[in-house]
Design a protein that fits this description.
153 residues; five-stranded mixed β-sheet; 4 helices
């Protein structure tokens, strides 16, 4: 007799308040919601998963690392996207030293996730890095403005 594992999905109350209601308009809105991540002593990576209409389905802590790095698992990132049936996702993480500019590791992670997402039909909408009182956004650097439906392929 073979046994199968049963997946149990449970909704729990998160620690971030005033989660975005309705359509997410842009990086600043995500930053304002999750900016408390800057207070973490270790690099922490959150995934924010969105519907076709750019509405938040869920968010989750994907990784907690050291002071200078956190590991990024494509399996974790895309697994949650598939489970939640998300079309888009935003990754947000902190730089405990305060400078929100992307490291070479951040840039390489972004490149890989964009490539993998195109293959899997789940799009990385933005990668936001939070520092001391400011943030960096992949979307703002490349596109600028607000998120738009259909703007991401």
């Amino acid at each position: 007799m073979k046994y199968l594992r049963k997946l149990k999905i449970q909704l729990v109350k998160g620690k971030y308040k005033d989660l975005v209601k309705g359509q997410v308009s842009g990086p600043e809105q995500i930053y304002e919601t999750f900016k408390a991540i800057k207070d973490q002593a270790q690099e922490t990576l959150l995934g924010v998963y969105l519907t076709n209409n750019l509405e938040v389905i869920l968010y989750d802590v994907l990784s907690v690392g050291g002071e200078g790095a956190s590991t990024l698992s494509a399996m974790d990132v895309f697994g949650r996207a598939f489970i939640s049936r998300a079309r888009y996702f935003v990754l947000i993480h902190n730089h405990p030293k305060g400078d929100p500019h992307p490291s070479s590791e951040d840039k390489e992670s972004i490149r890989k996730l964009v490539s993998q997402g195109n293959t899997l039909e789940v799009a990385l909408l933005d990668f936001i890095i939070v520092g001391d009182g400011r943030y960096w956004s992949m979307f703002e650097e490349a596109e600028g403005g607000e998120y738009e439906l259909g703007a991401v392929s």
